[in-house]
Amino acid sequence: MKPRPLPAVGPRRILAAAQLVSAIGDGAYYTSSALYFTRIVGLSPTRLGLGLAVAWGIGSLAGVPLGHLADRRGPRGVAVTLAFATAAVVASFLVVRSFLPFLGAACLYATAQSGLAAARQALIGGLVPGEERTGVLARLQSTLNAGLAVGAALGGVALTVGTRTAFLAAFALTALGFLVAGLVLRRLPEVVPQAAPEADRAGRDGPGLAVLADRRYAVVTLVNTVLLLRMPLLSLVLPLWIAEREPRLGWLGPVLFVLDTAGVTLFQVRTARAVTGLRSAVRAVRRSGAILLASCAVFAVTAAGVPVGATAVLLVAATALLVLGEMKQSAGSWQIGFDLAPADRLGQYQGFFGTGVAVARTAGPLLLTTLLLEGGAPGWLLLGGIFLAAGCAMGPAVRRAERDRPWRTGPVPAGPVPAPAAAGR
Predict the structure, then answer these.
(1) pLDDT for 425
(2) Same fold for the domain at 1-189 and the one at 199-409?
(3) Could you report the per-residue pLDDT of 47-61, keeping only the tens digit for each?
(4) Whole-model pTM above 0.90?
(5) How far, in Å, are 83, 109, 153, 168 from residue 175 at the CA level?
(6) Domain coordinates in residue numbering, the chain
(7) H-helix or E-strand containing 10?
(8) Phi and psi angles of residue 2, each rounded to the nearest 5 degrees, phi first
(9) What is the dihedral sign for C-alpha 159, 238, 19, 115?
(10) C-alpha span between 220 and 226 (Å, rounded)
(11) What's the CATH class of domain 199-409?
């Protein structure tokens, strides 16, 4: 039975609708922006890459204070404001003509996006019971991928036409998507900021941005960031790998990207059903590390000079494994990121946890192109080993983080508990 494309009527349906329209805009932007800024605006690829790296670096830093603002002022109003801000920033791209204005606009775009992601997570935390969040996030992820696919197709039209007007139409679609998303989010009920739990106030009396002093949560975030290095593989590394190793399969790069998008859209909800608490979340992340290792091993085989038909089959098989590993890692990390965060600080904690995405977007391309394009098969195997190690490290990191959270209630913990029988799990 196929999962429903949208959650039931109510806040979850509203969240999914906002996710869909903003994702359509994002898809159009991601598909067309690089060529617009290089061909139409005239930026060099080096300046474009530098500007985006700086922008996402700043955006990752802004996610925590903006998430904290959502905690203190209420996530709905902050999310709506940042959705409108994103629309305005994208509209400003229409008049960018040189590097410095581009850099300023890109920094504002990354900042608004990081803050919006944190505020949305805080909204989910306030509107959805803890035991249902991972399932809701899985549906939202499916909706996101469906929207990205539609937006990418529309952005592809702009690429095919190739005129300034066509590119500007794609940017206008992106701005419209976030404008509509903000209007949709306004229909959500208000989430009243929570007071810190008594146990938390007694044992955690500290600065407003408490997450910055939470070293154990930082370790969990770091482990998750290592696993997120999978993100640039399909969008950047594989097209370059195919072009270098087997140019006759250049057409396969976009097909593999579509395979990833379709797989997450259709199966993320089903995959997330197995995650019901920290124990199952850690298990999902650990398995994702093993699956990502298997995926990298199959990619490594394509460096051995096998026939073109066999290479195509191997690339599809490796991508299928990559998608499965991605879905398991996503489901597990959602549960972990929420369960280890104080209820009154979901925004700032989710903003900090989300910095992994920004790091993967900025550092990942350079690290992976160097490791894989220059390292070949050994590079793939090394990357797979890193994924496996990170997946195995998540369990100990979560257990250590959970020990200093006496306020945490809910699912069975992921690791040693007082009962001796559970101590070795």
Answers:
(1) 28
(2) yes
(3) 888 888 888 889 888
(4) no
(5) 9, 11, 17, 10
(6) 1-189, 199-409
(7) none
(8) -75, 140
(9) negative
(10) 10
(11) mainly alpha
Residue type, position 159, single letter: L
Cβ-Cβ contacts under 8 Å for 281 (sequence gap 6 or more):
134, 275, 331, 332, 333, 334, 335, 336, 339, 398, 414
Asked which of 298-312, 323-337, 357-371 is least confident by mean pLDDT, the reply is 357-371
Q: Both tokens of residue 354?
A: 């989300």
Q: For residue 197, what are the contacts with CB-CB under 8 A and spacing of at least 6?
A: 342, 343, 344, 407
Distance in angstroms (rounded) separating the CA atoms of residues 25 and 5: 19
Place of tokens 């701005």: 175
Phi, psi of 231 (to 5 degrees): -60, -45
Give 86-121 pLDDT, tens digit per residue. Answer: 999 999 998 999 999 999 999 999 999 999 999 999
Vertex 386 angle, CA 381 and 363, to 5°: 105
CATH number attached to the domain at 1-189: 1.20.1250.20
Q: What Å distances lie between residue 107 and 92, 113, 349, 412, CA to CA?
A: 12, 10, 21, 41
SS3 387: helix
**In the block, which residue shows the tokens 């992820």?**
141
